[in-house]
Write a sequence for this structure.
């Protein structure tokens, strides 16, 4: 009778062990298999700089980005566009400009980029570009997810030992068993 109760207890502990192991395996796979950490964002205004045109003189006056330039910069841009069209009309058909014109074009594009990026509405669209959530930066969120994943993967060995019931000697023996696992 005693051997029968021991075998029943062993089978129950085996079933419980498989159930616990299944839950542990699901938790481990669910927490580590789909991790896609954020990449660090070195430029806080990356979203804004993607909207910048390569050359402001090619934009029509009705372009939505023109509304975000301050008035003096916008006026300078329109004046320079008039100068460029006058130079093109007075030239012999070649669209080559002087070095001074190219230098002025470069300076005007830089001024337009600075004016656009300094606009309160443009900045207000994303007031905290360095944050990934409400309290963590992109780098901090990445480090948090990698730390959690590392801890979960290190726990696999312990979970695997519990799955195979190898984390401690059997307590079903009628004889006293010495714990050799080094755990209290």
């Amino acid at each position: 009778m005693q051997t029968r109760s021991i075998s029943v207890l062993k089978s129950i502990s085996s079933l419980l062990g498989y159930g616990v192991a299944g839950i542990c395996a699901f938790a481990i796979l669910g927490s580590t298999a789909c991790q896609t950490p954020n990449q660090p964002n070195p430029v806080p205004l990356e979203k804004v700089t993607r909207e910048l045109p390569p050359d402001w003189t090619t934009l029509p006056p009705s372009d939505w980005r023109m509304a975000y330039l301050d008035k003096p910069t916008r006026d300078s841009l329109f004046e320079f566009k008039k100068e460029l069209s006058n130079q093109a009309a007075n030239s012999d058909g070649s669209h080559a400009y002087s070095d001074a014109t190219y230098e002025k074009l470069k300076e005007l594009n830089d001024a337009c980029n600075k004016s656009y990026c300094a606009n309160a509405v443009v900045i207000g669209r994303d007031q905290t570009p360095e944050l990934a959530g409400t309290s963590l930066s992109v780098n901090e969120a990445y480090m948090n997810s990698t730390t959690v994943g590392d801890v979960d993967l290190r726990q696999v060995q312990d979970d695997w030992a519990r799955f195979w019931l190898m984390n401690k000697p059997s307590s079903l023996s009628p004889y006293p068993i010495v714990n050799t696992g080094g755990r209290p």
In short: The CA atoms of residues 69 and 116 lie 5 Å apart. Residues 29-43 have pLDDT under 50 and may be disordered. The radius of gyration is 34 Å.
